[in-house]
Amino acid sequence: MNIKFDPNNVVIKLCMSGMALEESGNIEGAITMFQKAWYEATDDYERFIAAYHLARKQKSITEKLKWMESSLQCALQINDDNVKSAYSTLYLNIAKCYEELCDSENAKRNYELSNSYKGMPSDEGPFYHGTKADLQVGDLLTAGGISNYKPGLKMNHIYFTANVNGAGLAAALAKGEERERVYIIEPTGEFENDPNVTDKKFPGNLTRSYRSREPLRIIGEETEWTKLTTTERREWRENSAKNQGEIIN
């Protein structure tokens, strides 16, 4: 099973709205949004995401545990690589709940399960890199470029994704006036989950975003992905300019 993270999904949009309300201090409004997401969820993937956000906002530890375990059960039902990246986070949150409830046996078991899912990603791709550079099959993409999101920041890693639309977004935001390109790549060395998105808004690495210090080899070019509209492109650029958060380099 291969589920693509879709920012236009109704439940994901409701959760994003909830998180925006949360950031502005409107916790009640945020909880209402997360509840709406839960009631509108139509499959285990959507329920896993909605339950996670509901769990985060529970005041009672038993309620938090109940929702976190619901999220985990839905995630386990899916058996998908990009959802597996969330297992460690979910087990960790469950362990902390048991610890607060003074149930040391269940806390220990869940901490161990959380640790067992840490480590290098097992994603087998295919992988993509979005840019405006005109490159050839066999060319190597290397670290050391300037960030699209923070002017003047030289990047220590080269970034890529298993989500073709995510690569398309990167191409749209890349510097230059040339046409947007999405290359099919293969990593030449070890890679890790991109810490700038992993466990930030959603549990794990649902966008299947990665980075490596080793070069990426171009093995082809992808021509089919969902292009941004002019309005969407402008909104993304404005949001990127406003987002002054720290980039983990």
Low-confidence stretches: none
Just give the CATH class of the largest domain: Alpha Beta
**End-to-end C-alpha gap:** 32 Å
> Oligomerization state of this entry?
single chain
Question: Globular, elongated, flat, extended or rod-shaped: what is the shape?
Answer: globular
For the largest beta sheet, what order do the strands appear in spatially?
1-4-7-2
Number of strands: 7
Give, in order, the helices and strands. Answer: HHHHHHHEEEHEEEEH
> How many structural units, i.e. domains?
2
Question: Any guess at the CATH architecture of the largest domain?
Answer: Alpha-Beta Barrel
CATH superfamily of the largest domain: Rifampin ADP-ribosyltransferase domain
* Number of distinct helices: 9
Helix content: 40-55%
CATH topology term of the largest domain: ADP-ribosylation fold
Largest sheet: 4 strands, antiparallel
Structural class: alpha+beta
Spatial extent as radius of gyration: 19 Å
Integer average pLDDT: 88
Residue fraction in strands: 5-15%
Tell me about this structure.
It is built from nine helices and seven strands. Helix content is 45%, strand content 12%. The chain is of the alpha+beta class and 249 residues long. The mean pLDDT is 88. It folds into two domains: 10-116, Tetratricopeptide repeat domain (Serine Threonine Protein Phosphatase 5, Tetratricopeptide repeat, Alpha Horseshoe); 127-242, Rifampin ADP-ribosyltransferase domain (ADP-ribosylation fold, Alpha-Beta Barrel), CATH 3.20.170. The chain is globular.
Indicate the topology:
Elements: H1 10-23, H2 27-40, H3 44-56, H4 61-78, H5 81-84, H6 87-100, H7 104-116, E1 127-131, E2 140-141, E3 158-161, H8 164-173, E4 181-187, E5 192-193, E6 209-212, E7 216-222, H9 230-242
Antiparallel strand pairs: 1-4, 2-7, 3-6, 4-7, 5-6
Helix pairs in contact: 1-2, 2-3, 3-4, 4-6, 6-7
